[in-house]
Design a protein that fits this description.
The structure holds two protein chains of two kinds. In chain A, helix 4 packs across helix 5 and helix 11 (about 315-335) runs parallel beside helix 13. Chain A is an alpha/beta fold. In chain A, helix 6 (about 125-140) links the parallel strand 3 and strand 4. Chain A has three domains: about 10-210, NADH-ubiquinone oxidoreductase 51kDa subunit (Rossmann fold); about 225-290, Ubiquitin-like (UB roll); about 295-380, Up-down Bundle (de novo design (two linked rop proteins)), CATH 1.20.1440.230. The mean pLDDT of chain A is about 95. Helices cover about 40% and strands about 15% of the residues of chain A. In chain A, the strands form two sheets. Chain A has a six-stranded mixed beta sheet with strand order 1-7-6-10-8-9. Chain A is globular, with a radius of gyration of 21 Å. By secondary structure, chain B is an alpha+beta fold. Chain B has a single domain (about 1-65), classed as Alpha-Beta Plaits (2-Layer Sandwich). Chain B has helices spanning about 15-20, 45-55, and strands spanning about 1-5, 25, 35, 60-65. In chain B, a hairpin with a 5-residue loop joins strand 2 and strand 3. Classes of the chains: A alpha/beta, B alpha+beta. At the A-B interface, helix 11 of A face loops of B. Chain B: Pfam families: Fer4_15.
């Protein structure tokens, strides 16, 4: 298990403001951030549009579009997706355990503006659930706010899987492509987003679009939470302006030189970090994994592939059989079997777009970019001599 | 515009669709359908509808979006 304790900030602290002194209870939250202003639905839509706010769970969907897609009345619930099923990510857990009131302000403020009677917080980490429950004891929001513990499986964090779990069903994505904004919680219109999105909304409501835009990119101003891990001296969560150079963040974390995985287990490998800036959608849920020079890249990738394969919900044939086949292909490739290389390329073409959720697509994206970026290494393995490096397990994945 | 769609949570790879619509559906090495993804023309619609009705898992669908 990868653990993250450090919290650092590049530039201005916004969603992590005040955390240098520890967890923010209601009093310290109000001292740090001030009162949450009462905004209307139009205010939230306009503000989100003005600053180009995008969801922070990975898909980077524009918040304003999500708000505009909701019907004029009858919004049933605001759902905070705190399942944070990416195993390396720590940012959402950090917000829920250390600054729960900021997340609640964002969710409750929006629920009032939308006229939604329910706020549901889906969490699978017991410490995060406890922290939010403690925070709820301190405040009176005038609507039904509930913390629900959901399973921690990888695909259980997918938006529709979370809704299914909240309704008491299995935490798996349904086969039909329905939008939560139209048919969400109990088939009623629902606004669902990631924990950090709500914290950013709470900051945006207080600062206004001009204040919010005082840092970061013009196209997507503000800050972002990043989880940095792997071959780094100081792993942890970093708040940084959008558009910050990747090299700056790596330097901050004391990363060893080498390839970097951007966007988590469904992300892409980067051979070069020069000139790469961090923004959505590339940065996805904000996970940055440094590989360093000492470990065998193919071995690391195979371990992650094994883990991803084991996390399939088991509903869709191409995902169940395809990911298992890919693990086998990569294992054979690593020991120098050229047929493994050919099979991997064929299977990578067979998996994307053929499942109820994006798990097969994301896994294929990760493995395809690995074959591209580690081509030299692949050739060395295919020559039968291997790369001479041990598999350190820096990326997590299967043991 | 009509297109075939598969509910992957239902599909068990019976393979009837590939037999009934060989121009639109192939089977992969595990027996699951691979859609060509092209539009179903008006002339092909009756056959496509029959294939949808024949799917034992009710996984094949015709989407007109």
């Amino acid at each position: 298990m990868i653990t993250v304790e450090e919290i650092r900030v590049i530039g201005e602290a916004r969603v992590l403001a005040g955390l240098d002194q520890g967890r923010l209870d209601l009093q310290r939250h109000l001292l740090t951030h001030g009162d949450q202003p009462q905004l209307t639905r139009a205010d939230y839509t306009n503000l989100s549009e003005a600053v180009g706010l995008r969801g922070r769970g990975g898909a980077a969907f524009p918040v304003a579009l999500k708000l505009q897609d909701l019907p004029a009345r009858g919004v049933e619930a605001v759902v905070v997706n705190g399942s944070e099923s990416e195993p390396v990510s720590r940012k959402d857990r950090l917000l829920l355990t250390q600054s729960p009131h900021l997340v609640l302000d964002g969710a409750v403020g929006l629920a009032h503006a939308l006229g939604a009677p329910h706020v549901l917080i889906a969490v699978h980490d017991p410490a995060a659930a406890l922290s939010v429950r403690e925070a709820l004891m301190e405040r009176d929001d005038g609507l039904a706010v509930e913390v629900r513990e959901t399973p921690g499986r990888f695909v259980a964090g997918e938006a529709r899987a979370v809704l299914s779990a909240l309704e008491g069903g299995l935490a798996v994505p349904p086969g039909r492509r329905v939008l939560p904004t139209r048919k969400g919680y109990h088939r009623r219109p629902t606004f669902l987003s990631n924990v950090e999105t709500f914290a950013q909304l709470a900051v945006l409501a207080r600062l206004g679009s001009r204040g919010f835009s005082s840092t970061g990119l013009i196209s997507e101003p503000g800050t972002q939470l990043l989880t940095v891990d792997g071959a780094v001296q100081w792993p942890g969560v970093i708040e940084a302006p959008t558009g910050v150079p990747l090299d700056t963040v790596l330097q901050y974390a004391g990363a060893e030189p080498g390839p970097v995985l951007l966007g988590g287990y469904h992300g892409r490998w980067l051979e070069q970090t020069d000139g790469v800036t961090l923004q959505r959608p590339e940065v996805s849920a904000g996970i940055i994994l440094a590989l360093g020079p000492a470990t065998c890249p193919l071995g690391e990738v195979t371990r992650v592939a094994q883990w991803l394969s084991s996390q399939s919900a088991g509903q869709c044939g191409p995902c169940v059989f395809g990911l298992a086949a890919l693990v086998d292909d990569f294992a054979r490739l690593t020991v120098g079997d050229p047929q493994g290389w050919h099979d991997a390329h064929r299977h990578l073409g067979l998996v994307p777009g053929r499942g109820a959720c994006a798990h097969p697509d994301g896994t294929a994206r990760f493995l395809t970019s690995a074959l591209e970026v580690f081509d030299d290494d692949v050739q060395r393995h295919l020559s039968g001599r291997g790369c001479g490096r041990p598999v350190l397990g820096l990326l997590g994945g299967a043991r | 515009m009509n297109k075939l769609e598969i509910d992957w949570t239902r599909c068990d790879g019976h393979g009837l669709c590939a037999g009934l619509l060989p121009d639109d559906v192939l089977l992969d090495e595990w027996g699951f359908p691979v859609l060509r993804g092209r539009e179903i023309t008006a002339g092909e619609l009756p056959d496509a509808r029959r294939a949808v009705l024949a799917c034992p898992a009710l996984a094949l669908r015709l989407n007109n979006r």
